[in-house]
Hints:
The complex is a heterodimer of chains A (273) and B (329).
Chain A: E1 7-12, H1 18-30, E2 36-41, H2 44-52, E3 58-61, H3 63-72, E4 78-83, E5 91-96, E6 111-114, H4 120-132, E7 141-144, H5 157-167, E8 173-177, H6 178-185, E9 195-200, E10 208-211, H7 217-228, H8 235-244, E11 249-250, H9 258-266
Parallel strand pairs in A: 1-2, 1-3, 6-7, 6-8
Antiparallel strand pairs in A: 3-10, 4-10, 4-11, 5-8, 5-9
Helix pairs in contact in A: 1-8, 2-3, 4-9
Chain B: H1 2-13, E1 20-24, H2 30-41, E2 44-48, E3 52-56, E4 76-80, H3 107-119, E5 124-128, H4 138-148, E6 151-155, H5 162-169, E7 176-181, H6 187-194, H7 198-211, E8 215-222, H8 229-239, E9 247-251, E10 274-276, E11 279-281, E12 293-295, H9 301-325
Parallel strand pairs in B: 4-5, 4-10, 5-6, 6-7, 7-8, 8-9
Antiparallel strand pairs in B: 1-3, 2-3, 10-11, 11-12
Helix pairs in contact in B: 3-4
The structure holds iron/sulfur cluster.
Iron/sulfur cluster (SF4) binds at residues 85, 87-89, 92, 96, 129-131, 156, 194 of chain B.
Amino acid sequence: MNDDDTLLVGAVAYTANVVPIWEGIKEYFADSDTPMDFVLYSNYERQVEELLAGHIDLAWNTNVAWVRTLRRTNGTARAVAMRDTDLTFRTLFIGRQGTGRLSLSDFGGRRIALGSRDSGQARILPVHFLTEAGIGADDAEWVIFDSDVGKHGDTGTSDLDALRAVLADDADVAAVGVNTWQAMTAGGEDLVADLEVVWESEDYNHCNFTALEGLDEDRVERWVQHLLAMDWENPEHRHILELEGLREWKRPELEGYRSLHEAMESQGIADGW
Amino acid sequence: MSALILRLVEQVGATPAGSVTEVALDGPDDLASVARWCEATGNEVLTVLPDAVEIHRGRIADPLASLPPERRPGHRLWVYTNFHCNLACDYCCVESSPTAAPRVLSTAELSRLLEAAVASGVEELYITGGEPFMLIDMDERLRLATSLLPTTVLTNAMLFRGERLRRLEALPRDNLTLQISLDSATPGLHDRHRGSGSFERALDGIRCALDLGFRVRVAATLGEDAGDTETELERLFSDLGLDDDQRVVRRVARQGAANSGLTVSRTSLVPEVCVTAEGVWWHPVAAIDPAMKVADHWAPFDEVLDSVREEYRRHRIRGDVLASTFPCA
Lengths: 273, 329
Ligand code: SF4
């Protein structure tokens, strides 16, 4: 399958809609001089192993999978493209209406609902932000939802579980990815009037296409250029862009991964399973 | 309220594009919130149930857009000017015969209907019956119709004599097609279903219309006993000098007097709006079937047309969703 001309891209099947997304992207590349095919994995750990083993050329990685790949390759792996939305990802803490804006130091003594242990946005980074502000595990009550482990928070299930805990008064605040909150408030903030944002992180980076050092740079560059040419105004492209949650593909900017590097280091999160 | 939104995000998010999920409602007020959320997120409310809604993941493409323009409801209008006929074919889909109640649509009524139809974008008219030329003043209706729209009149061509022939000769040739029924290349099969001697007279009628310079299309209706008729008919059509677009071969529908044939329904037929003196029907093949009646009167025409389009959309979307839910069927 992986002949000279076809780039093989790995992705994780966190919903059935991953199939039409990648079928659409594959079709978009079919007419280019860098055709591609894709392989779907059930979890990011398997995908990283497969990339390292050379079974795929590119991996569509979460931020956690990217950091792991970078560590496993002594920093030689390359990020080659990402979504516009991957440059402005954030973690939000959501509380019941009337909680008001909080600073992280106010979180002491509260019940904090957190998502899956492999979710950058719902667990690893919020714990990091809190710890940096002096709120450790002993200073607050952590209410943990380890749902959909292996998907690195992509399904959003643990975000929603955490929010349900807030609504049921089993927690005071819930950590969620900004994408979850945007999906909830898409029809207007008044539709979720019993909840409110109480704290918001700085922007950080989320997913990227990751390649190993040995992959032909010219070939990847031609592939990336064709990827960047996808156009929101073109209805066929737009259908794929909407499903994948972006308006525009971008060149990577790696500064936004710094906080996650630090978080995984300080929390001692393993490089693999 | 937030609990509802959490359910929406979770359930719709996990639903494959093009599939449907049923989301429970906590009360009637939830419906407006669901509609707003779906609109903003590119999903669609498909059906409202007593305590729940069915939501289609992703936008639903308009089924009308996938039809060729000439097949979209509202492009073509069918009109039954009358129901009586000089024949009593055993497969007649509206049970016409010499003794059938005529149910005549007057020229004045036709004039009002066509004015409304043209204003609503109708581009093509088919006049049928019964036998339209049973009405001695059929020429007036055809003159009116052809002044407004390309018109086809369906006829058995057996009445082109005397006063009727004189009136036919005087009709304009532009914008008019005579669609004449002929079911076989020799008398046997045709006469078996349409009456003894009808084949020769129909053939005479076809030659008469061609000689008068009318545009003629010959249509055959074939039942289960058709055998090799289709091949023989094609040969006869060629002998008559008919081009491919002057030939129609179709199967008997199980309607009216026909007790065998294809079963039709509002869900199985793309609608072709059909007006009779008794109301509006889904399709001309079923213009006396109560289940296929759309409205008691054609006015206001644009509203009747919209209701047909909307019903067709619903059937198609429902059909597409079922097809994607039960791919093994
Ligand atoms: S099929 Fe046509 S010709 Fe025969 S009875 Fe019906 S209307 Fe008359």
